[in-house]
């Protein structure tokens, strides 16, 4: 019961006010008493705090960023990636249809009061606090999510950097990027599901990851050169790219 106490206390009135509402309905979002907030924390600040051994937020910490992921096709599951400048965090919201309230490009402010964070495969995850440096838990409650992730009233056109494969390093983990000039080694013959190799002549390769539960998992990989827009991730020390949907795949000009 003590976990997240700093966030739960100021949101108690909001929770009572939402009694009887359909918590699974994300759009439109009910009026939020915390809408007039000014951010004072960036993803980069959280990484610096984690490096210094701090893993739980104090009062009045307000994170700013732009939404770069979408769960519309099911490849991102109950999480939301928020980026500012070259740093990003993954919010463990634990709810569904997140994209309907927080679409890609939406600028948000996140109330961090009482939340915790930890690095996992190079990406900082934010959620209910856990002991020490272990991974935090999902928030899991739609009313609490609406109270701590606030739309800032602005919308940004996402313009991820266009990069070659040899420009993807561990420093890019969490970033939204567009990979250019490559193709799938199994293009035209294998489905998206699982890990698939994307490579370019004379350079390195990277693997994409698609959940078997994603709506496009069974579709065939595109043949020929394509550009991929997705978020750089890591698994067991190996860099990957994770796309939100096949809308992020374009034939290379």
For this entry, give a set of tags.
globular, mainly beta, seven-stranded mixed sheet, 253 residues, single chain
Shape: globular
Largest pleated sheet? 7 strands, mixed
Mean pLDDT: 87
By DSSP (H or I, 4+ residues per run), the number of helices equals 3
Through-space gap between termini: 55 Å
* Quaternary: single chain
In N-to-C order, the SSE pattern is HHEEEEEEHEEEEEEEE
Q: Specify Rg, calculated over alpha carbons.
A: 19 Å
* Structural classification: mainly beta
- DSSP strand count: 14
Across the major sheet, the strand order is 5-6-3-2-1-4-7
Any low-confidence stretches, pLDDT <50, length ≥5? Answer: 1-5, 8-26
Proportion in helices: 10-25%
Indicate the proportion of strand residues.
25-35%
Walk me through the topology.
Layout: H1 5-17, H2 43-51, E1 62-67, E2 79-84, E3 87-92, E4 106-111, E5 116-120, E6 123-127, H3 142-148, E7 149-155, E8 162-163, E9 176-184, E10 194-199, E11 205-210, E12 226-235, E13 238-242, E14 249-251
Parallel strand pairs: 3-6, 8-9, 11-13
Antiparallel strand pairs: 1-2, 1-4, 2-3, 4-7, 5-6, 9-10, 9-12, 10-11, 12-13, 12-14
Helix pairs in contact: 1-3
Overview of this structure, please?
The chain has 3 helices and 14 strands. The chain has 253 residues and is mainly beta. Helix 1 (5-17) crosses helix 3 (142-148). The longest helix is centred in the first third of the chain and has 13 residues, at 5-17.
């Amino acid at each position: 019961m003590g976990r997240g106490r700093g966030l739960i206390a100021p949101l108690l009135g909001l929770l009572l006010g939402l009694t009887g509402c359909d918590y699974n309905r994300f759009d439109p979002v009910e009026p939020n008493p915390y809408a007039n907030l000014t951010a004072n924390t960036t993803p980069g600040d959280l990484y610096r705090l984690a490096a210094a051994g701090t893993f739980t937020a104090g009062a009045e910490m307000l994170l700013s960023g732009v939404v770069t992921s979408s769960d519309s096709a099911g490849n991102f599951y109950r999480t939301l990636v928020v980026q500012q400048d070259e740093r990003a965090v993954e919010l463990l919201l634990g709810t569904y249809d997140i994209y309907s309230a927080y679409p890609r490009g939406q600028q948000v402010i996140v109330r961090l009061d009482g939340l915790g964070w930890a690095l996992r495969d190079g990406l900082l995850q934010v959620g209910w606090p856990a002991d020490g440096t272990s991974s935090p838990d999902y928030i899991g409650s739609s009313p609490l999510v609406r109270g701590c992730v606030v739309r800032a009233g602005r919308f940004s056109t996402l313009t991820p950097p266009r990069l070659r494969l040899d420009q993807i390093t561990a420093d890019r983990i969490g970033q939204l990027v567009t990979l250019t000039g490559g193709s799938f080694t199994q293009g035209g013959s294998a489905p998206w599901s699982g890990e698939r190799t994307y490579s370019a002549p004379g350079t390195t390769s990277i693997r994409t990851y698609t959940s078997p539960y994603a709506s496009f998992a069974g579709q065939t990989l595109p043949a020929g050169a394509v550009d991929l827009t997705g978020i750089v991730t890591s698994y067991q020390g190996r860099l990957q790219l994770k796309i939100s949907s096949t809308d992020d795949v374009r034939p290379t000009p």
